[in-house]
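Aim 2, interim progress: modelling of the adenosine-5'-triphosphate-bound target.
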Amino acid sequence: MADPVPLADPAVLVSDLSLSYPASGGHRAYNAVEGMSTVLGRGRTLALLGESGSGKSTFARFLAGRADDSPEKSSRIRATGGDAVVLGVPLRRLRKRAALQLTAHVGMLGQDAGATLPPELNVGDILFAPIAERSKHFDRTQLGERIVEMMDIVGLPLGKLQEYPYELSKGQRQRVAVMQSLMLEPSLYIADEPTLGVDANNRPRIVDLLEWYRKRSGATLILVSHDIGMLERLGQRVLVMQQGRAVGEGDIDDIFRTADHGYVQQLAQALRASAYDEIAEA
Ligand SMILES: Nc1ncnc2c1ncn2[C@@H]1O[C@H](COP(=O)(O)OP(=O)(O)OP(=O)(O)O)[C@@H](O)[C@H]1O
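Predicted structure of the complex, ligand included:
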């Protein structure tokens, strides 16, 4: 099995990839993604857009090397065609050990991550946890400096490091989750709706953090998001999905201006006209 190459270029290469959920409880196997192909150069940012159920999260989770990351068998994603190569590692038959090696370099912020913070840890320990899980020896001082810088960028006072998730607002929890997902300094970072549910004043702080991280690390980003403010600041390429398939891909400005696909045109109009949460939750 190939070892991950953090500086691989392209960082992500997807060819004719189809993904499905297995049959379970009387339900047939479900094809969530069909025939996707795309290439993402190192250091680039790709935004995934599309209506609810179009396969964005499935695609994102698979690319993050987390296809099997679910206690329920029925939620494990299977590649049924094609393949994706992420940081030089083919994902189609990724074994547990190889997945663990890959995920050291691929950060993933799952949907509504702020709601799944461990309730028994305070914010400081939550931030240290990804590092402590992988290594007993780490430089607390150096990490502490990084944490202070991140807390400042997202506008959280340092006193919050002693607080527990139940003491934080929803938006504060989400900011902690985003910080936590960056702690291992991933070279590929995939975030599923990082600003969803965060009030409009605090969304830019999350974008600030992602922008800071991208500049500092040169990481490649994949963002599932309809937050137009974020896409304008961070998005470079946009891939629009509908019913598991890519229906448009291009530079953020071009794709909406010149889109010839009806759904992409509709989406472009909606993004310009509506409040972000209404689209994301539609
Ligand atoms: N655990 C699962 N088991 C079976 N089918 C699933 C599972 N998770 C998602 N699906 C189905 O796969 C399809 C794609 O879902 P997915 O969550 O990837 O879409 P999405 O575009 O991210 O939607 P949303 O924006 O609502 O999160 C949907 O039809 C969904 O019902």
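The pocket of adenosine-5'-triphosphate is lined by residues 21, 30, 32, 50, 52-58, 74-75, 111 (CB under 6 Å). The first strand starts at residue 12 and ends at 21.
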